[in-house]
Amino acid sequence: MTRKAKKELLTFVITELSNLYPYAKIQLQFRSPFELLVATILSAQCTDERVNSVTSEMYKHYNSPEQFAVLDIEVIEKMIFSTGYYKAKARHIKELSMKLLKEFDGNVPDNMDDLLKLQGVGRKTANVILGHIYDVPAIVVDTHVTRIVNRLAICKTKDAGKIEFELMELIDKHYWVVFTHYMINFGRNLCKARTPKCFDCPLSGRCDTYKKEFSRNIKTNQKKS
User: Which residues are identified as catalytic?
Assistant: First the structure.
């Protein structure tokens, strides 16, 4: 697919999904940059609903780097146990809290380079912070984005970094942040990993994967008949 064709397809996708999900927005609940940072770390391999359930209780007692920096790691582990990978997540939260206090006066950085210095923070988490706290255009590439752009043949890689930079070249900056939320809603409701609802999908007519599957099914049925 040419670059021009990809840009045109993405414009179509954004238009269709903006109609389908006009109120698409981040689902993680937070009241401060630090709360969003912790929630995003907890969201790895975990649903937003579960994270919100955990943080709604946890933040009643601890919600600042000053508090997490002095907590015993076991206390953090117990609070976040149900989010999965709790040992690594607890270690990251404690270590990044200490680093924020030591190097950033307790403030969450407002740029990619400094965010990536924090334990447990990759480009995905950094882009969440930049896009939702500091209004910096950023594309968050999660499993939904990766799956969908590959099914549409816009990208042909599972490398999140490569996908991010390719999409940045194809999508107008104005849509970078909301694009991810369109993809998340679409991936959860229609373009599911195992059972995509292709016959209900407004993008099926432009979907490379659907066309191939549809063609394969026709050929299979013809052979059977």
Answer: 124, 142
Regarding whether 48 and 20 lie in a shared domain, the answer is no
**Domain span including residue 16:** 3-24+140-215
Write the secondary structure of 3-28 as one string of H (helix), E (strand) and C (coil).
HHHHHHHHHHHHHHHHHHCCCCCCCC
Asked if residue 189 and residue 113 are part of one domain, the reply reads no
Is 220 within the bounds of a domain?
no
Alpha helices, H only, 81-122: 86-103, 112-115
3-state secondary structure of 78: helix
What does the alpha-carbon distance between residue 185 and residue 174 come to, in Å, rounded to a whole number?
19
Per-residue pLDDT of the chain (225 residues; tens, 9 = 90+): 899 999 999 999 999 999 999 999 999 999 999 999 999 999 999 999 999 999 999 999 999 999 999 999 999 999 999 999 999 999 999 999 999 999 999 999 999 999 999 999 999 999 999 999 999 999 999 999 999 999 999 999 999 999 999 999 999 999 999 999 999 999 999 999 999 999 999 999 999 999 888 666 544 544 444
Residues 61, 118, single domain; the answer is yes
